[in-house]
Amino acid sequence: MSTISEKIQQVRLQIDNACQACGRPGNGVQLLAVSKTFGVDAIAQAAEAGQRAFGENYIQEAVEKIRYFAEHDAWKDQGLVWHCIGPIQSNKTRLVAEHFDWVHTVDRLKTAERLSAQRPAQLAPLQVCIQVNVDGGITKSGVAPDEVAALVQQVAQLPQLQLRGVMSIPDVVPDFAAQLAVHQRVKAVFDSIAALGLPQLAQWDTISLGMTADLQAAVQAGSTMVRVGSGIFGQRDYGSAH
Q1: For a designed S-S bond to 97, which of 5, 39, 54, 119 qualifies (C-beta 3.0 to 4.6 A apart)?
Q2: Are strands 206-208 and 81-84 parallel, antiparallel or unpaired?
């Protein structure tokens, strides 16, 4: 059985190969290790292998992990970066604002306003991606592609937030061509916002797109951050998740 360290190296090689296949530099795509439902020991193993960016879906569970690493001398200055990649209920915005470094799932102005108001002044601005529902699933989170620009212009006015880009979780499709087509639509949304030329978008540089099954298509479409969980940590036991 491969160790977490070995799996990280395998995923990084996949990213490098995907970049090479479409003529992109390998350092242009960041690996976000999705550590939801896994404990601090697994995260520590990944961190020891050089991984620094971790994605979490369940807010309360994540805060406990963030506090653990913040309070341990061996880790507090190691530059671990915590990304919220799950839905945010109104009663959880304060926890997110106070503990996370990034949020990928902003799709309403109300959520952004709460995050901005609740972000402690002594912390760096919260890095924000707008979640785009690129393929129109009615049960999915995210703003429709044609509504992204309006939301961006509203969120851009909020203090304590720094807009960075877009995130999307397209429905699973069976073949590479279909994956690439839907991912290219996400890239088109990103490009259309960049073209607005808003001064608040000086750091508009992130496309959070692609997971284990569609990593190659996401990289070819222009993803700058791929989210990999089971490919690093193994299969999840959702019985202990909330």
Answers
A1: 119
A2: unpaired
